[in-house]
Fold these 3 entries.
Entry 1:
Amino acid sequence: MPGMPISSKLRERIQGFLETGERIRYAFPAEILGSISPGVVVVVTQQSITVLSTGIFNRSKPKGVLAKSPRGVRLGPVDTNAAAWFTFNGVHYEVDDEYVPVVNAADAELGSPDQVPQDPLPEL
């Protein structure tokens, strides 16, 4: 499966918060930028993007759904100037650098033209 940097146990727990028939395409941990709240897990399926809250000390136990949007919504772009972060539904989420490619891959599946890398030699 693409974009699965999390354990099979966590994927199993996440599945309990998804609609019947939804299958996880991408899932990764994040934090709400500038918040002392518990972490979150962002889950992308073919039908939706779901943000699940997790425990303060344990990101492997989702507690509830914080946000859900149809799959047509993009997560990025990811700003990597200082810390890696993106805005989803008006909330800023910080991700570890290792998950930036996961966010980009999830967005690239939508076929958005701005996800295509720029031509490094456009004059040729």
Entry 2:
Amino acid sequence: MINMKMQIGGKAVEACGCEFSDIINPATGEFIDRVPRGTEEDAAMAVEAAWSAFSDWASTSPQQRAGILYRAAGIVRERKDELAVLLTREQGKPLTEAKNEIEGFANVLEYYCGLASSFHGDFIPIHQSGYAFTVKKPLGVCSAIIPWNMPALIMAWKISPALISGNTLVLKPASSTPLTNLTLSSILSEAGLPAGVLNIVTGPGEVVGESLVKNRKVKRISFTGETGTGKRVAELAASGMKRVTLELGGSDPMLVCDDANLEAAVAGALRGRFYNCGQICTAVKRLFVFESVAEEFIKKLEAGIRNLRVGNGLHEDVDMGPLNNRRQWEYIKELVAELKEKEEGRILTGGRVPEGSDYSKGYFFEPTLVADVSEESRLLNEEVFGPVLPVVRVKDLDEAIEKANNTCYGLGASIWTKNIDRARIGCERLNAGIIWLNQHLKVAPEVPFGGTRESGIGKENGPDALSEYLDLKTVMLKT
């Protein structure tokens, strides 16, 4: 037990209230730690700390800011193993995946360090009228609300462009996975980040999150989470005309054409659906396969799923850990039970809670493949955040695209083909913010990331994300 506290103004502080949330290992049910259940007063105090720190932080050079973030990235790499263990204990993912995520945190920090000198204005000659130039300035206090599925990586997505561009920030982590975020924040302080530049307030979204969104001193909100909550954030932010980025839910389709490399596509589907126990916004959630290759593809995929090893993420040779929390676990069990009851699909493998003492106290569910799925099934009409993959046979690319677009979401999609024309058509017609060709899931720090329709507003990552944290001021000169 670490006895974690909130981090406000560079100090570890207790909440104004006296309630705490227990952090539980989703693989074993064991108590790990507890964190304060923050209040509106705590959120306000964190905003004030960020407000007080803003002027000095904004006046530092981008190179000075980059030096601090770069040092922090180096410390994170040195402590990767211990950070990964902490992440696995609170989130559940296999240790290999946790190490990759911690590396990802460092990668994102370092990427934005490389952009430290890139955000500057332009000089604009205006014929017969003189000149104009533009100046880019940080917004002020920003706020980020992040989920539990990739807490370290998404923290980096939020804080890196905000801090490198001279803003201060208040972060609200997910209630079930705050420990890694608090530890990473401490490392940033150790690397020289001034007090108050980054503050972390733990607590429920309806209290802490809403308080941050409504606070008049917060100029920007970046939220990652489910669509319903994102709409609530947008509604609250609108009254203050705050800038908002919303990275919301997705129901990503994967299209496998009859000329695809089936071995590669099977490997892509396995990783794309079952990585992090299927708890990724851009995971493969609906699989559409041409009829002519469906039988062969499904057999190979079923065999691959049967070979996945489920267990405690801290154990060696585990491919998939538990779901992160009871709510997600109950949802997946309910979904599969309803599928069986209504006969809306044929379960080829999985579909159960695994048996045995190793699984009795955790939120485990077998990796599951479902064929012959009814169009009315919730598997095809909801964002299924868990290890259940529906596969649908289609006759051609037109039908695949039509069915893939039959959703309110538009986050990611992938098309698997050797034909450049099919790839082009898929890229043009699929409704998604990011489209992969012959791959799925991976997103580099350099790549703008975000969805369309009910999958969100705005972009994260890449140089485009910096503009979301800067005000553009125009100065006109008459000569």
Entry 3:
Amino acid sequence: MSSLPPLSPEQLVKPRHFELRMGLIFFTLFVPLGIHLPYFPLWLQANGFDAEQIAVVLAAPMFLRVVTTPLLTALADRASDRAHVYVALMAASLALSAGYFLTPSYAMVLAVSLALTVAWTPHSPIADSLALSGVRRFGSNYANMRKWGSISYLCANLAGGFILSATGAQAVPVIIFVAFGAALVVALIAPRLGRPRRASPLSAADIQHSAPKLLNGYFLYFSIGVGVITASHAFLYGFVSIYWKSIGIGDSVVGLLWGWGVLAEIGMFMIFTRVFGSFSVVSIMVMAGIGAIVRWIAFPLIWPLGLGVGGFFAVQTLHGVSVALVLIGLQKMIGETVAEERTGAAQGIAYSSNGFFTAVVTLLSGPLYDRFGVDGFFAMIPIALVGLVLIGLAARSAPQRRIGR
């Protein structure tokens, strides 16, 4: 691959209010997800879908985006500006989400979900790619920008729970549609950074030496390990809201439980640089994997042991470890080892890894929940362990040099 030229003089100028604009992008980006993840399964159940149908509707789009997301993120890398691709995909997502207003038959919901995932899934990797360009070019702090996504996700969890407690689950498609509309408006102010460029005047030989191809052992083991640890959360994402409702927990409390986990995630974003900034990405990911294992051991025991809703709040605190550390650790790895002109492709590969393994586990989660109920969480433990083994293999093939700003 031929190296791209250094940053142009215009690209060395930091866009006005870059961090604020990226913070707004992340804030609006995560509102639809903050409604979809906890409450979409409840909407499916309210429309008569059984556990296996819910698993298919949730998993099938994940398999599709494994193929489509890397293609679209690579397209964004080649576009005149990644922000233009982001705006176009957000507009497409708004239009496609209106499909949920149609009669919610199994075939219709599955078709809309498949179409929507093509446009929706690249939002996060493209936004991450823009943010990482700011980190490289201008020294921006990724965690300080990305935390606003977690804050909005928290707000969506809480607001969604209270709205649904008043209106019922049929409001879910309306909230998602409105959220995409707000995200499209904010997308119009996304910072324009031009095409990705390398941020230092290295020679072509230096770039090739310091920025190895993405298909190397370290990047692949690490990305797959991240994907497998993330996939161990599939049972939680697909069925925990349904489980909580089945034991008599109301919509508003379900929203609070989801929100508490995200609050822990925000807390991790706020303290990460100060507490964990000097840790290696492998160490960070090992902590995340251990946090996930502890969650899956604890979840099925809380209600039988009489720990009540307070016990669920306690175990949801580990969201700050098993999820936030994965998010930050992945971006830290890409920032340290991938050249800027490859960050879009790197984000796409990593997101596809997450999507593929999460899709597989989500598909298995329907029968698991049907047969074992909450005890299905125990099946997530060996999955997280496999992820930790892969992270260990990544550590053995880690590169000796990092990419600087």
